[in-house]
Amino acid sequence: MQKFGCFNIMESGTVYRSVSGLQGYYPRIVHLGEDELLASFVAGKALETPDSHPVLARSTDGGVSWLLEGPVDANRTGKLPPTETGFISLDSDGSIMCLGARWTIDPAHPDLPLVDPQSVGMRDNQIVLRRSSDGGRSWSAARILPKPFPSPLELPTGMMSLRDGSNMLSYSTWRQWDGVLPFGHRICVSRSVDGCNSWSKPTDIFYDPMNRIGYWEGRVIQMAGDTMLATCWAHEWSSDEDLPNHYSISHDGGNSWSVPLVSPVMGQTGWPLWLGGNQILFVYGHRRAPVGVRAQIAEINGDRWVTVFDAEVWSPEVKTENAITTSDYAVTGFQFGAPSAIRLDERNVIVTYWGVENGRAGINRTMIVLHP
User: Fold this and answer.
1) Which of 1, 10, 76, 202 has its CA 20 to 30 A from that of 153?
2) What residues form DSSP beta bridges with 301?
3) What are phi and psi of 102, to 5 degrees?
4) Mind listing the pLDDT tens digit of every residue in the chain (372 residues)?
5) Which residues touch 329 (CB under 8 Å, ≥6 apart)?
6) Can you name the residues that pair with 12 across neighbouring β-strands?
7) Is the Cα torsion angle 2, 3, 8, 13 positive or negative in sign?
């Protein structure tokens, strides 16, 4: 099996950026075959503004050029439509799923943010799932999935399709608007074996019962056999500082997980991509010097994370160091984020992320090539 020791940047470009109107955040890409790629991202007046909603762009030349296609919800009209996020992924039957969160707009307070800047508490939300059977050209009506906790939820990634045909939903509990945290900052998964119609009880992956550590931005991937890897952004509340990215290993297909383990990566939002065997590519936001989007090839040896190669993918114009703290939801001031990656073939990978250029947030992509 091919092992990789490094990568190099081939070229970078733009998926979406407009000099006026909607800005772009939180991208995701799926490979539809040959040279066709579909991207989703969240568009809004600014980051996490009430008008935010998922839109699509398509490439038919392997990601070199992109055409904006419009909202996932083609019927998004009327006064005060809900705020939504959305992240696309492929299901085992070839259909495309778009999973996100929905917040209703209060007519009395239409400009209320999703997260209170001081309490870092979130407004209550719903889980929304749509499906497309024609390559993302048309979509089913929104389905509201049952919430596993009566709490605001972070839904930072798309629905996962497992090799056995089941689906896995990952999410994290969040503080309520007033800052109360009834279920802790835990990251869990639930599984469906009937096409997302019913769900298992939550399985904890990252959870500190003492609430000393907060866990966000959970990502789960399948590796060889029954091995699964989960990664997240971790924050220590006593020092109010970010910790290295944490990870957990499952050796039974996600039914049970190791205690949270500490990786050598000092990142925030991250995305693991299985490269085969025990290797992953981990792309991550790095908001300490050197500020930017980075990626590393790592090996998971047993339960140990070993860095093989680490390098910068993209550097922003404004290199401000940032982090969420107890009383400051700094996300709305971030200059980039939400990197993810998919393989186009054995050695070529496309990394997508949002970034601010010339004062406007849009979606960037970088092509990298893996080398032995």
Assistant:
1) 76
2) 304
3) -130, 135
4) 799 999 999 999 999 999 999 999 999 999 999 999 999 999 999 999 999 999 999 999 999 999 999 999 999 877 899 999 999 999 999 999 999 999 999 999 999 999 998 899 999 999 999 999 999 999 999 999 999 999 999 999 999 999 999 999 999 999 999 999 999 999 999 999 999 999 999 999 999 999 999 999 999 999 999 999 999 999 999 999 999 999 999 999 999 999 999 999 999 999 999 999 999 999 999 999 999 999 999 999 999 999 999 999 999 998 888 888 887 887 888 999 999 999 999 999 999 999 999 999 999 999 999 999
5) 115, 116, 117, 118, 120
6) 366
7) positive
> Rounded to an integer, what distance in angstroms lies between the CA atom of residue 13 and that of residue 163?
32
Q: What is the pTM for the complete model shown? A: 0.96
Question: What SS3 state is found at 124?
Answer: coil
SS3 330: helix
**Tokens 């490094």 belong to which residue?**
6
Measured CA to CA, the distance from residue 354 to residue 123 in angstroms comes to: 24
Cβ-proximal residues to 44 (8 Å cutoff; 6+ apart), any chain: 22, 23, 25, 50, 51, 52, 53
